[in-house]
Each structure stands twice: as C-alpha cells, then as structure tokens.
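Board notes (copied after class):
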Amino acid sequence: MNIQEAKTEICNTLRAYLAKDENGYYTYPLIRQRPLLLIGPPGIGKTAIMEQAAAECGVGLVAYTITHHTRQSAIGLPEIVKRNYGGKGMMVTDYTMSEIVASVYDCMENTGRKEGILFIDEINCVSETLAPAMLALLQNKTFGSHKIPEGWILVAAGNPPEYNKSVREFDVVTLDRIKRIDVEENFEVWKEYAYRQGIHPAVISYLEIRRKNFYRIENTVDGKVFATARGWEDLSQLIQVYEMLEKTVDRDVVYQYIQHKMIAKDFANYLALYYKYKQDYAVEDLLKGEWNPSIIQKIKNAPLDEHLSIAGLLSGRLGEAFAACYRADAMVTKIYEYMLLYREHQKEWSLETVIGQITQDLEAGKKAEQLTRTEEKTMQKAEAFFETARIRVNESSGSKEAVYEEVKAQFEAEAERLEEQTEEAAGMLQHVFAFLEAAFGESQEMVAFITELNANYYSVWFIKENGSDAYYRYNKGLLFEERQQKILGQMEEVETLLNAGIKS
C-alpha cells in the first residue's frame, strides 16, 4: 500500500486499540494489541505520516531512530537491587528506566495526553548487541525491565533488505506477534503532500514530467545512487532559500541532495529552463492578463515538454497565491475569534489582556502538541495583530468602548486587505485560463493544468470558496482519465529521448 493508505490503517488500528467500554476499560485485549511494523524504502515519509496520524487521532507521539542509540540508552543501565525469594534476601541485576520509556512518561506529563504512539524507526537495522532488546520490544512491548505504558501503541518501521545491507530478518516467532504493513512509494500521494507543504513548483512540475525520477535507488559500479522523496523535499527548501539570496542552484548543489548524477543533471537543466521560461514568457505579466500575440505563437511552436512546463509553472504560481490567501483567511478568522472574545469582555479587558489570552492559548496548544505548524503561525500572527493594535491605540485616552471600536476598525481594514488579496488571486486564475485557452484551447495541456489544480489542496480550497466559471466548465467537459493517460504516454516518450541524450 502507499504511505497515505498506511496512515489510514495506523489510525484505524489506533482507534480500535484505544476503544473503551461504558466503564472506561479498553475493549481490545492488551495481549492482542500487536505492534505495527511498517516496512518500506527509506525517505518515503514514514515519520511525517506518524506525526499526521497522531495529530488526527489526538494522541501523543514519541519518535526515535533506534540506530542512534546504544544498548544502555535503549534498555537502561544495570543496577544491583535486593529482593526476597523464599524469605531469603538476594542481590540481583535490574535495569534503570530506558530513556525511550522515560520519554513516553515525559510526553504524558508535559502534554497531559495519556495515550499515544511510540514510533521506533529503523528497527531492523540495529547492532547485534541491541537486536535482542528490539525483539523483546516487539514481542512484549518491554524495554529492559519496563513496559510501555497502557494506552500507548508501538509502531516500528524498517527498510527492506535490498535497501540496507545491515538489515536483520525477523524470526517467525516475532513476525507472528506483529501487524506488518508493507509500504511503497507513490508519486500521486506525495504530490498532494508536496502542495500542502509548499514544495517548490519546479520540483513538482519536473517530477510530473519525469515520474520515474521521483524515487530511484540503484546499485552501480560506483556504488549506490539514489533519489528519494526526502531528498526532493530538502532540495526544495534549499531552492527557495537560494532564490531569496539570489544564488544559483547548479548541478553540483542538486547532487548534494539527489545523489543520482543523471537525475541531478537532468533536474539542474530543467531548473535552468524553468527560470528561463518564467522570464521568456513573462509569467508575472501573464498572471495580470498582459501578453501579446507573439507569446501565443511562441508557445504554440514549442515542444510538448515546454508546454507542460509552462502549465506547471503557471499552476505552481497560482498555488502560491492561493496558499497565501488560505493563510491570510486563517489569520483573519483567528483574529475574529478573539475580537468576539474581546467584545464580550470589553468592559473589563485591556488589549494586554487579549494578548495574554492568545499567548496562554498558544502555549497550552504547543504543550499539548495540538497545533500544526500552520495553526501555530496563525496564532502568532493573531497575537502580532493585537500587539500592533496596542501600540497604535492610546488606551488611556478614551473609554474601553472607544478603544474597542478603534481595534475593530483595524480588524475591518485587515479583512478588507484579505478581500483585495482574494480578488487579485481570482483575477490571476481568470487570466491564466484566458491565456491557456488562447494558446491551447481544450487540449491535453489544459487537462494537465486542470489536473494540477485538482491535486493542489490550496487550489481546490480557493475555487470552492470563491468559484471559477472557467474551472467548472473545463473540469466538467474534459475527459481526464483517458486524456491524462495519453499525456503520460507522451511524457514517457519524451523522457526516454531525454535520458538517452543525458547518458551520452
């Protein structure tokens, strides 16, 4: 199954294990609660999925890469204790609490969550001295002398042997006590994640055309070469920072993240073309509805991969605008929530009180690990709004009602800016449709463009909230499945030719 399906299975298992009867007792017998074992290639997002699963289920998460640990940190240090056996005192060896088990209790203490996931990554790549402890963990949910607390589900992950020479095979006894989930890479699933995470549009559009390069691990005479989802995500972050610094990402820089020389060279060439197309076709002008007939003729005469690159470039730029609208909308909505609270208590509250309330809510959410990164940033922006309002408003010069009205006016101005931003983004979408209609009409390029809009969470959100006549018309009229297969077939032909040229 793909990583998204694996997440669903993890969530379903978690909810089953943690279900309680009318008396508050777990209905699923603890002895039958098998640990989950994810087996899949490195770098496909197993850790990210665990974070999402924990957030969706509202439970705690403690994650460890076990290969970073020694036997002592994993199972605890030996200590001599006195015990009575048959009325006779004896000195025996016991173990202090494992760092990992202690982290579970720390999470419970810090977040207030009594249930959660203990995630152990690379469990089948441990050293020989640690291997017996990992088997005991999977079989008995025990580290050393200490069990994982009730209400905590063990999820482990490992790599198939073809990806790691140090992989240890589990015996039948262990395998018969776990719930195994085999995970495979899947570009379409990753693409949805990539849009949500703001992966650079050039990375997404390149991989849309060169899907075979999304995830590749090969053994060559020069050693192992690879490209992974993790590598593409990290490279995307670097590209975005380099753009801000006005620095160039060349082949050597790409290879630092995509350690497959052919793919690194190919992407570096594509990225250079991406920037060239952005300038040659004056993309920012296109988004404003400004272009001349020569541009239309230029793109009509260009090859298919250039058409698709332009469509990807435009959809990526729109996605950035829609994501900005999403964040602005979330901020205004959050400010509105506190404006309602402020209005309710305006007779006794100052702006300092409002800010204090936001700070308190933010810290409580962070401590309980209930906030996503986006939610945390939204809260911080709401806090900044009221802090700015406090600076602008002289609370000592007027009544509390008058101060509230001043802050309300500032909020209304913020809401108006959101409206203007939304109208600008809607105009950009309209202009892009007009350009693509003039250049391609109801073509496979339009199919590719609509497909990318449908894959982008922020695009779908924006169109749902604000509508788009052109989108609804084309989305309904184009035969996606059949025509997309045709496009992918042509992409394969283009890729084969390009790869032949790259290797030579």
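Comment from the instructor: The chain has a mean pLDDT of 86. The CA atoms of residues 270 and 408 lie 49 Å apart.
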